[in-house]
Structure formats: C-alpha cells, structure tokens
Design a protein that fits this description.
The mean pLDDT is 93. Helix content is 46%, strand content 15%. It is globular, with a radius of gyration of 26 Å. The chain contains 18 helices and 14 strands. It has 447 residues and is α/β, with parallel strands linked by helices. Strand 7, helix 10 and strand 8 form a beta-alpha-beta unit. The protein has three domains: 155 residues, Nitrogenase molybdenum iron protein domain (Rossmann fold), CATH 3.40.50.1980; 162 residues, Rossmann fold (3-Layer(aba) Sandwich); 34 residues, Single alpha-helices involved in coiled-coils or other helix-helix interfaces, CATH 1.20.5.1300.
C-alpha cells in the first residue's frame, strides 16, 4: 500500500480528484461501445447517441442496446408478476428473511425522516403544500455482482415518501432474466414495475418514455459511467437525484486504531470496483505501515481479490499527517462518500465533520453496516459532492408548492410594500394588480 507523508503531498497525490469526464474505459469496453453505437469520439458522445436513438425509436432501441451491452436477447422489457413470485423459490429463505429485516430497518428510518422533512404548513394563509413525486424510475445495477441492497435503499425511501409509482430498471444475465434475488428485493420494497433494461438506454427510456416504459418524473439510483453521464444529459427533461461515481472511503485513524479493522474497512470499499478509492489518513506512521501489511494479508482472503488489489494500486494508500486537526481538514476537503473514524473519542471528533456522505463513528460502527441494515440509504454523494449534497432520502421524492391564500386584511398589511418594490423595478402592471385591490376599484385604469 502506498504511503505518503504530509498533507500537501496527500493533496497532490492520493487525494487529488479526477473530473467525471476523465474516466477511461477499458479497451474491450470501448471497442464494444463503438461496435454498438458507431463511430463516436468519447463516452459523452456515445451516451448522447444512445439517448437520441431511444427518444426516436423507443423500445426497439432499448432492446438493441441492451442486447449489445448485456449479451442477451429478449423480446419484452417488462418483468411479469409471475416471474417475481417464482423468484422466491430460487432464493434461500434465510436471505429472504435478511432482506425483510433490512427493509424493516430502512423503512423505519425513513418513516422517521419523513416526519422531520418537508411538510405542508400554513401561517396567515401563506405556506407550503408538500406532495410526493408521481412516478420515479430507479436504476438497479448489477448482474455478475447483484445488489439487492441497492433496490431496498432506493425504492423504500421513495415508497415511504408516498411516490405513486416506483419503477426499476435492471440489467439481465446471459439467460435474459433479472437475477431472482433482485426481484425478491423489489417485491419486498413494494416496487410497482420492473423492466429488463440497463445503462444509458434505461435512463433514456425513463426520461422520454417508450411504447412499453412510461415516462417518469425523476430518475434515481447508482450506476456505471454510462448511467451517470446519461442522468446528467437528461436532467431538465426529468429530475435526477445525484451523479454517483465509484465508491470511496476515507478512514481517519490515530495511534489507538486497530490496523486490522482499518484494513477491513478499506477493503470493503475496494472490492466494489477497480475505480474505488480506499484511503487511510493517520497521525501514526506505525498504523499506516501495519494497515498496509493487513491489507496485503486480507486481500488473499477475498473472492474479489484482483478487483480490490487493482483499486488499491490505482487510487488507494495512506497519508501520514501531523495532527488529527490536519486529518479532518483533509477529510473535509475531499468530502468522501464514507468517512470512518478510528480515533479516540470518536463521537466528539464526529461533530467536527462538515463534508461526508456518511460518518461511521468508532470501530464498532463499520461502514458495511451502513450498506445493509443500519437504516439510512447507502446511496450517498460521491466525487466530492458531499460538499453540497446529501444521502438519498425521503426529501428526494417530495416537492413543495408555495401557497398564497390571504384575505383582505392581510393584503392591506403586506401589499403596499410589494407595490412599492414593483414600481421600483419598473413593473407597473405588477404594482397595479395589487393597488387595484387595495383601492377596491377594479375599473380604475390609471397608472
């Protein structure tokens, strides 16, 4: 594991962020992309072509691109209810129970959250009317690696908020089927519709609608670079929750930390994908070195050793700093998706954190717990967006409508100032619309 010394060197190397558009596709993926899409110069252009084709052709374009990218041919995008019911026979009962346990935890957390976010209110006839979004489309990635947890973590907050129709898009395996465990998770979450589709073409189908897929009001959920760029390009046609990049974790540790646990937490994110970012920031050179040794030892125990190793070689490592103040300053600057605190008096240090998707306080609060059963959604801001963004939650599926319903007395109290400001801005008609009411003579045409 790479170890660098000093905050400035950390900023220059391990903590230096790369823009979203700089992502380079593996040669095999890029060749397959050009074969499917045509002669395009970059990923942005490929996504733009896919979106345009789906808008123009609908289902046929979605099916064509899904076949090209997923390697499976099928005739219908819709997953029927009998396939969902049959999926329970393919999933171990203990796993079904675990999914239900997780769903209950996630639902309970978001019900509490719903009671503390945007709500309808009115004071003197002026207030907000809160309503849920009518229809949401959620990307549910993964076939070789399946993420039933992501289905729960995105669909349940939407359903808890009161979204009328929650739809998910999932890639299929070589057999043309959505993995059974994902169908079970969708059913437990209360999803209203499931579609066999993936990538940019799925986001386009949700954004524009097709012969089979209804147009949604907002698209949500994590995904690969094609999904992320597609969400950015369809924003405005529909709402989006966030642009999610590869997983990232920073562990801040002092000399009291357990190096084996620090390594385990870093590896838990490194095994996601070769583009993951696992970084230790510590005040102890000894902890950095021992964590590196533990990373190497534990890597050999992982099913996804090669992926985790590639992540460490490309973006992982440790930064040794002079103080915890400096460590937390670096953490805030990087604004990671996950920030794990392996320090003495961790609850007090947690109050210092400004920028992170989630803070995992103390060694008994591993980030992996947050991925499954803690309760908050694990769909959290990445790529430094924790500086201004929040984890996915109930508020992502609610919107407010301002309501003005005043009577004559209130109009006389607040109207004159409004009219004066309107005239100062040169908007005479604005002013007169108030003044006519104050004068009580709608026939007065003077200005």
């Amino acid at each position: 594991m790479k170890i660098v010394s000093g905050a400035d060197e950390g900023r220059r190397t391990l903590l230096r962020r790369r823009p979203l558009g700089d992502t380079e596709l593996p040669d095999a993926v890029w060749q397959a992309t050009r074969q499917a899409v045509g002669d395009v110069a970059n990923v942005e252009e490929a996504v733009r072509k896919i979106l345009a084709d789906v808008r123009d052709e609908g289902d046929s374009a979605v099916l064509r691109y899904c076949s090209a990218f997923d390697g499976a041919d099928y005739d219908s995008l819709v997953v029927e209810s009998d396939e969902v019911r049959a999926a329970y026979d393919e999933v171990d009962g203990e796993i079904v129970d675990a999914l239900r346990f997780a769903a209950d935890r996630i639902r309970s957390f978001h019900e509490e959250q719903r009671n503390n976010v945007l709500r309808s209110f009115s004071s003197d006839g002026i207030g907000v009317q809160a309503t849920a979004i009518a229809r949401v489309g959620i990307n549910a990635p993964g076939t070789a690696v399946v993420y039933p947890s992501s289905v729960l973590m995105t669909a349940i907050p939407a359903k808890t908020a009161g979204v009328g129709e929650v739809l998910i898009a999932s890639p299929v395996g070589s057999d043309g089927r959505v993995p059974a465990i994902k169908l079970v998770a969708a059913d437990i979450a209360g999803v209203d519709g499931i579609f066999r589709m993936s990538g940019a073409q799925a986001m386009a189908a949700f954004a524009y609608g097709t012969q089979t897929v209804p147009r949604v009001d907002k698209v949500c959920g994590p995904g690969n670079i094609f999904v992320t760029l597609a969400k950015r390009q369809v924003f405005g046609e529909v709402g989006i929750d966030a642009l999610y990049g590869p997983s990232e974790t920073i562990v801040i540790a002092d000399e009291t930390a357990d190096a084996a646990l620090c390594a385990a937490d870093l590896l838990a994110q490194a095994e996601h994908d070769e583009l993951a970012t696992p970084i230790l920031i510590t005040t102890s050179r000894d902890i950095a070195e021992r964590t590196g040794e533990e990373v190497e030892r534990q890597l050999k125990l992982l099913e996804r050793e090669q992926i985790a190793r590639a992540a460490f070689e490309a973006r992982g490592g440790a930064v040794v700093v002079d103080s915890l103040d400096e460590a937390f300053e670096l953490g805030d600057e990087f604004a990671p998706e996950h920030l794990c605190l392996a320090v003495a008096d961790a609850p007090q240090w947690a109050k210092r954190v400004r920028n992170a998707g989630g803070v995992f306080v103390g060694e008994m609060s591993p980030e992996s717990l947050g991925d499954y059963t803690a309760g908050p959604s694990h769909a959290m801001p990445t790529m430094g967006t924790a500086r201004f963004a929040s984890p996915l939650g109930v508020s992502d599926f609610l919107k407010g409508t301002s309501v003005v319903a005043v009577g004559e007395e209130e109009l006389r109290r607040i109207g004159p100032a409004a009219a004066r400001i309107a005239r100062a801005e040169g908007f005479t008609a604005h002013a007169r619309s108030i003044e006519l009411r104050l004068e009580g003579d709608g026939d007065d045409s003077s200005v």
